[in-house]
């Protein structure tokens, strides 16, 4: 049955990691000698990049971060990217290894990665991104008061969750919203709480299913068939890494799938209010450049939100697969993916 929407107001790497060994990109012993660059003589720097899982948003953030570093005076920087495959023990080991290797800077891409890095070192500068709630995750005392060696960017737009819930409430006939999330991830817990808060005063009711690994995601999605009118996958690393299994359930059963970021729209989600993660990573990299050049310390740089506009992205093919009728008036307020 088609779900009809009305009166929308718009706003808009790779490697196996185990405790005994980790994949890396371009890792090499740290060199002390100077290397000639376009700007003259410059010491080689080594950046350890830690990422909890592989998925397009995190991958794009990493690429943006690298670009900002190499385009702003450190074209000879060496990056050692290691993926924890969703395992916190791996994440902690990666961070401890970076600390032991005395890398010049750590790029922590996700909340769990940042927490592990901060546990591993109080001296090496840490720049994080893709973090939902830096204060709640106890990474910093306050957004304007980062730690002595840690700062970064949050991927949270305060209005994103509110807008999505408003979309579901006012533009659909839905009454129940299925939420699949990893209750072991602090960032996911916060987002689900925010969704529930945004539902207050509406007729919407959340139906929550928790998972602990990506292997459980498909079964969790299937458990919601017949129990919910729409699905909403927030920016949860565990679930997003297995998003295709949720998309398959949504497509097979005509359940509109709302997601927390635009990269997940490209992978088959119906719609999201989100930001460009490449730009977010680049923004974080520009902060790191100030530290690497000795202009500032991490303590001097406040944690910030994305420096870009929130946008609505709709996947036309996913809409058809999930039984959603697109409205002509959306043409002026949404970016479409065919």
Automatic annotation (TrEMBL):
Spell out the coiled coil positions from the record: none
Taxonomy, superkingdom = Bacteria
InterPro entries, A to Z: ABC_transpt-TYRBP-like, Peripla_BP_I
What PANTHER family does this protein's entry cite?
A: ABC TRANSPORTER, SUBSTRATE-BINDING LIPOPROTEIN, ABC TRANSPORTER, SUBSTRATE-BINDING LIPOPROTEIN-RELATED
Q: What is this protein called?
A: ABC transporter substrate-binding protein
Q: Which organism is it from?
A: Metabacillus herbersteinensis
């Amino acid at each position: 049955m088609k779900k009809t929407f009305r009166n929308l107001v718009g706003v808009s790497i790779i490697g196996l990691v185990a405790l005994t060994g980790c994949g890396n990109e371009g890792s090499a012993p740290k060199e002390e000698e100077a290397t000639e660059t376009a700007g003259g003589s410059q010491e080689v720097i080594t950046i350890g990049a830690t990422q909890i899982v592989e998925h397009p948003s995190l991958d794009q953030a990493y690429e943006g971060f690298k670009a900002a570093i190499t385009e702003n005076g450190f074209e000879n920087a060496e990056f050692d990217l290691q993926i924890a495959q969703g395992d916190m023990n791996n994440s902690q080991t990666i961070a401890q290894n970076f600390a032991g290797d005395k890398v010049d800077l750590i790029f922590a891409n996700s909340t769990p990665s940042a927490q592990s890095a901060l546990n591993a070192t109080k001296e090496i500068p840490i720049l994080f991104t893709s973090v939902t709630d830096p204060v709640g995750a106890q990474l910093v005392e306050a957004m304007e008061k980062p730690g002595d060696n840690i700062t970064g960017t949050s991927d949270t737009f305060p209005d994103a969750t509110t807008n999505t819930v408003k979309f579901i409430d006012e533009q659909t006939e839905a009454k129940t919203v299925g939420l699949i999330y990893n209750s072991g991830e602090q960032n996911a817990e916060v987002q689900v709480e925010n969704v529930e808060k945004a539902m207050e005063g509406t007729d919407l009711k959340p139906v929550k299913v928790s998972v602990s690994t990506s292997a459980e995601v498909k079964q969790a999605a299937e458990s919601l068939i017949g129990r919910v009118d729409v699905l909403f996958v927030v920016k949860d690393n565990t679930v997003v890494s297995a998003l295709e299994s949720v998309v398959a359930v949504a497509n097979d059963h005509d359940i509109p799938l709302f997601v927390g970021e635009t990269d997940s729209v490209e992978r088959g989600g119906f719609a999201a209010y989100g930001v460009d993660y490449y730009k977010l990573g680049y923004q974080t990299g520009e902060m790191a450049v100030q530290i690497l050049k000795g202009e500032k310390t991490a303590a001097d740089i406040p944690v910030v939100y994305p420096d870009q506009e929130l946008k609505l992205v709709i996947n036309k093919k996913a809409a058809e697969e999930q039984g959603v009728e697109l409205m002509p008036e959306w043409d002026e307020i949404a970016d479409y993916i065919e």
